[in-house]
């Protein structure tokens, strides 16, 4: 049993894209053979299983992380042979009548066997083969720069975020940028962005990560030093009261909870930042305040009220950013099946017409009047005579 487990582990770790299970131990076994192929849809990658009887084929899908147990179950109980293919290796597993396990492995270029319909290569900004230390430490890349199959969704999400930033960056020939990352936490995304700016875009950046936890800041500074990211450092501080007297070109705020996002946006506006990227989180404020004048149906059901309040919060933020001179978009950051907190606010400094400013403010005021709420960002900007 232990030898079989070790053999299966080596096959799974080889990141195989095609598997054939055959040679039944018992003639009464229902399926003559089982084919397993790696597939990629719009939202995720998975393995598709085809199980063959004499007259039919049965299909099912399994998650990447379930492959090991799936293979182990069939090879332990029902079959004596398994062949598998990765891009660089071919595996041949055989179990003798006495239960001895034999695993053969040979180097081979199997790239021509990849199912082209389901594995079309997308040109990501952070490509396979790049040695990106934060992605390796995060477990998304192997030490050789290959994507770990079970982390492919995470790899796509990170690239999606970088692409959203890149869409703005490539509009101008930036030579240097000062970037503040509010509520950076111990996420490696800050380090990944630094790599993108410095190594890929060749921009001279000064990047500051801000967080409330002293141990997090200490560890992040140690990691930055280990990576030799000389112009990236982390500071202890609250988004609400943080002071920075030099120019700021970009503000990033990911998953700042509730009104912390509003304070981050307010600071970005005060600094006259060229670009703002914000993924809000936990929008409780308007949910607690909502008392509609006539649209009571939207607060009749708690789950509806919660979601409507979150969407209204971001709609108000988007309009207020327009009102103070930012071209603003609300984008899908990741697919909603992965997280309901999937809206990213992208804002860039622009010449917004007086008519559009007035319309944006009017829409906010009408919404506030209908639902009797009082958003933090509106109050901050109003009290500072910015709107």
From TrEMBL:
Single GO term (MF): methyltransferase activity
Superkingdom of source: Bacteria
Keyword hit for Methyltransferase: yes
Occurrences of domain Methyltransferase (ranges): 153-289
Annotated keywords: Methyltransferase, Transferase
Listed GO biological process terms: methylation
InterPro entries cross-referenced by the UniProt entry: Methyltranfer_dom (IPR025714)
Keyword Hydrolase: no
Pfam families: Methyltransf_32
Stated name of the protein: SAM-dependent methyltransferase
Native species: Intestinibacter bartlettii
